[in-house]
Amino acid sequence: MPTEPTVYVIDDEPDMCEVLSDILESKHIKVKTYTSPREFMRTYSPDNPGCLLLDIGMPDINGLELMEAIIAQGNRTPVIFLTGNATIANAVEMLKAGALDFIEKPPKIDVLLSCVRKALELDLQRRYEQQRFCDISQRLNLLTAREREVLTWITEGKSNKMVARILDISSRTVEIHRANILNKMQAQSVAQLVKMDLTAKEYVSTAGRQNV
Fold first, then answer.
1. What is the DSSP track for 106-146?
2. 88-96 and 63-72 helices cross at what angle (nearest 10)?
């Protein structure tokens, strides 16, 4: 499985695949080309970093349909559409469907490179955020049900005494839970716990909006 960011070009025109490949490889950007969406779907894994360049007008499975299939699998890889006759309505439809951008054919080199670099940077950022979320989720899974309750109130700024009253337990018990939470979450302070909580909530919210 490749770890180097790759631009995946899916276009039923072999000549266009070759042109795009030549442009990107001249700038030392790794490229893989496909003339069939089905071939692409058989070999592609969302674990592979990079972005997708999709022809909007392919027969059998068009670009929008392919992107919808990818999104349905939980894939957040950035998508750039290639189109030969984009209208304003087409552009709105593509962007609303979740595309990062679209490029008209024949592509202008500077526009193509700018869009691709933006997409690769976005993919890297999303993967970093996903890894942070996964790390936090793994730590949260170590907490007991009671520790999760205590964590909820702590991250809302409640003192030990207030948490004790809310949960009808002693302040000493809250202190013990708090120490266990900090240890399991690998946090040095309540401030770090709050940041972790915000990171997890923000990731879930952002991922949800992107998959709508």
1. SPPHHHHHHHHHHHHHHHHHHHHHHHHHHHHHHHHTTS-HH
2. 10
Q: How far from each other are the two terminal CA atoms of the chain, in whole angstroms?
A: 28
Phi, psi values for residue 183, rounded to 5°: -70, -50
Instruction: Specify whether the CB–CB gap between 167 and 150 falls below 8 A.
Output: yes
- Specify whether the CB–CB gap between 52 and 10 falls below 8 A: yes
CATH topology of domain 142-210: Arc Repressor Mutant, subunit A (1.10.10)
Which amino acid is located at 63 in the chain? G
CA nearest to 7, candidates 77, 58, 76, 92: 77
d(CA 35, CA 89): 26
Q: For residues 122 and 136, give the distance between their C-alpha atoms in angstroms, rounded to a whole number.
A: 21
What are the residue ranges spanned by the domains of the chain? 6-127, 142-210
pLDDT one-digit tens code per residue, 51-73:
999 998 888 888 889 988 888 88
Question: pLDDT, tens digit, for every residue of 18-57?
Answer: 999 999 999 999 999 999 999 999 988 888 899 999 998 8
Cite the beta strand spans of the chain per DSSP E: 6-10, 30-34, 50-55, 79-83, 101-104
Return the beta strands (E) in 19-67 as ranges: 30-34, 50-55
Q: What are phi and psi of 101, to 5 degrees?
A: -165, 175
CATH top-level class of 6-127: alpha beta
